Amino acid sequence: MGVMEAVSRGANEAGEHVIGATCEEIKHWRPTKANAWVKEEWCYPTLIERLNSLIEHCDAAIALPGGVGTMAEVSVMWNRLLIGALTPRPLIAIGEGWKSTFDQFFSELGNYIPEHDQKLLGFAPDIESGFKQVQQLLG
After folding, report:
1. Residue 131: which residues within 8 A CB-CB, separation 6 or more?
2. Which of 12, 115, 122, 136 could bridge to 37 as Cys pair (CB 3.0-4.6 Å)?
3. What is the mean pLDDT of each run of 10 residues along the chain (139 residues)?
4. Separation of first and last alpha carbons in the chain
């Protein structure tokens, strides 16, 4: 649905093998199935198992504008990077919404978040800029 379907379609049309990470808890909450562009579905029993799979199996993460689920994905991955539970990898949030949200967070609670930790989370105004950042960071 929505953004993830569009991303899946774009990747599929570019000739990529699309893997969809789903979970039974979401399917129970909102009866749906993997979108038509997904060629391989990884279905997990719980949301936390799905989240861990997304984080563990990526070389880089790009967070598009989203809601609570996206915020959880960003927060958990950022925290795992911060504590060294993951090998370093890019985590880029796309769009002014994320930038202004985290600017406010850093402004209000920045004394709890050292500058080094803040820099583990990158920002880009649009997907093209975010993709270029990922390419530069991955070399």
Report:
1. 62
2. 12
3. 89 95 93 92 96 96 94 97 96 97 94 94 97 94
4. 32
